[in-house]
């Protein structure tokens, strides 16, 4: 059943490289920051200049309003020389009682007045003053006062905003060429820095592209820096090491399996050809033994393939002592007797069939090399942190394993028997399978020291066993 259709959205930078995307992103971020900062700067400057002009106009309007109530109002109101300002006193019926020189002969410059509950009101206006032609920006303030005859009047005082507009234009003129130049500088620096940072990545990509299944010995270059790219190179080289080791191990495994299968298959073919040519000479037991040997070898190969693939079967809590007792009872009498020594507490989390296979393989190996007897001991060993391990030791009184070969015997298809005969030597997979199964259960398996053959299996007890992945 199909899910809901997701609308396709084109990418922001289709087919663009990381270098292009990084440069474009950096330029865009800086551009937005510069524009926002410039707008904020202009806003703050404009607000400050307008506020200053309004405060100046308000002070003059209040000063004129105070003298108006005292009856000292003159027809021409004085303003500082060289300053674009205006003053005007207007009655409620529109008569101009007094004005500054630049408003001589003009009617009211404004008609707004402060609300009854406000001391003053301010507006931005554009006015043309005598003798300068053309309109100019002013911040005009209105203040209510008392006239000479005791009636209400409105005092209008204005301060020019030409300086504020000139300052804004000056800032814009200074920033206009600077912002593009700064963006070009950011783009150049980002382009160069990104190129230098990605140069090792390109070298890694080129080297990986040259690596093939037939040439896994090559490794990617590791830059001298200790940054993320260097760690990526080291990780890739480690991965290539593991891949090469896995491929070599697979090739050796295939070669060894082919070699080990060649002899029993050849023997089977010989038996079949003899049986076809001379039915009376056919030895059924030998034929059956060869068939069983091929079947066991095929089963071992399938089990190893499953372990290499990381398959995790179902696990339950098992008592290793009880499992060892069950395995010995199922095996019956062997070439030499087997004694079991078990202690309580050896409970592990594992797969019954795989743990039984470990014990079977260790006992098969001991039966081939023991002289008079085999001892299997199961115990629990406590650790300093509380959780310990379960220990299984399989000891035979045979010739033992030479110290130089105590690790080699766990290699697949390795047999130390001088004759390497089929009856005495086995297939060389038993100990390898046993160790792989032990490792899959979070434990270890190794050859111990001392007289005779000794193999020690250690598995974490149930409370210390990590959950299977």
Describe the fold and architecture.
It is a single chain. This protein is of the alpha+beta class and 469 residues long. It has 3 domains: 16-210, no CATH class; 228-308, Orthogonal Bundle (Helix Hairpins); 316-464, Histidine kinase-like ATPase, C-terminal domain (Heat Shock Protein 90, 2-Layer Sandwich), CATH 3.30.565.10. It is built from 8 helices and 13 strands. It has helices spanning 18-69, 162-210, 228-277, 284-308, 320-331, 352-369, 422-425, 430-440, and strands at residues 76-77, 85-91, 96-100, 120-127, 136-146, 152-160, 316-319, 338-342, 347-350, 374-381, 389-396, 444-447, 453-460. The strands form 3 sheets. Strands 1-3-2-6-5-4 form a 6-stranded mixed beta sheet. Strands 8-10-11-13-12 form a 5-stranded mixed beta sheet. Helix 6 runs antiparallel to helix 8 (430-440). It is rod-shaped. 22% of the residues are buried. Residues 418-425 and 465-469 have low confidence and may be disordered.
């Amino acid at each position: 059943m199909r899910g809901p259709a997701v609308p396709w959205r084109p990418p922001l930078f289709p087919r663009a490289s990381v270098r292009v995307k990084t440069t474009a992103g950096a330029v865009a971020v800086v551009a937005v920051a510069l524009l926002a900062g410039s707008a904020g700067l202009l806003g703050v400057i404009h607000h400050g200049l307008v506020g200053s002009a309004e405060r100046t106009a308000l002070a003059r309007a209040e000063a004129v309003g105070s003298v108006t109530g005292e009856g000292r109002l003159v027809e021409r109101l004085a303003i500082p020389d060289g300053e674009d300002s205006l003053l005007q006193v207007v009655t409620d019926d529109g008569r101009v009682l007094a004005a500054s020189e630049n408003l001589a002969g003009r009617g009211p410059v404004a008609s707004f007045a402060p609300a009854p509950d406000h001391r003053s009101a301010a507006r931005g206006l554009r006015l043309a003053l005598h003798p300068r032609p053309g309109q100019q920006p002013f911040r005009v303030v209105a203040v209510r006062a008392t006239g000479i005859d005791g009636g209400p009047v409105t005092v209008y005082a204005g301060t020019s905003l030409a300086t504020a507009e000139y300052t804004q234009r000056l800032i814009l003129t200074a920033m206009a060429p600077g912002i593009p130049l700064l963006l070009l500088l950011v783009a150049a620096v980002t382009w160069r820095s990104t190129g230098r940072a990605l140069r090792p990545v390109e070298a890694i990509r080129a080297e990986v592209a040259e690596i093939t299944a037939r040439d896994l010995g090559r490794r990617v270059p590791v830059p001298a820096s200790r940054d993320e790219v260097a760690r990526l190179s080291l990780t890739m080289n480690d991965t290539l090491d593991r891949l090469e080791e896995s491929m070599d191990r697979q090739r050796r495994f295939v070669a060894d399996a082919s070699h080990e299968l060649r002899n029993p298959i050849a023997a089977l073919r010989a038996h079949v050809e003899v049986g076809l040519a001379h039915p009376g000479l056919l030895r059924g037991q030998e034929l059956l033994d060869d068939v069983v040997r091929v079947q066991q070898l095929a089963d071992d190969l399938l089990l190893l393939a499953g372990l290499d693939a990381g398959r995790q079967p179902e696990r339950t809590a098992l008592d290793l002592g009880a499992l060892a007792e069950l395995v010995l009872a199922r095996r019956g009498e062997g070439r030499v007797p087997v004694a079991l020594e078990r202690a309580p507490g050896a409970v592990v989390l594992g797969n019954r069939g795989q743990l039984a296979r470990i014990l079977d393989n260790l006992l098969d190996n001991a039966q081939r090399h023991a002289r008079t007897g085999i001892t299997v001991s199961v115990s629990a060993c406590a650790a300093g942190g509380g959780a310990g391990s379960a220990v299984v030791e399989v000891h035979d009184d045979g010739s033992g394993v030479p110290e130089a070969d105590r690790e080699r015997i766990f290699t697949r298809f390795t047999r130390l028997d001088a004759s390497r005969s089929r009856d005495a030597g086995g297939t060389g997979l038993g100990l390898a399978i046993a160790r792989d199964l032990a490792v899959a259960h979070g434990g270890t398996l190794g050859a111990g020291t001392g007289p005779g053959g000794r193999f020690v299996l250690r598995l974490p007890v149930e409370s210390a066993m990590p959950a299977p992945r």
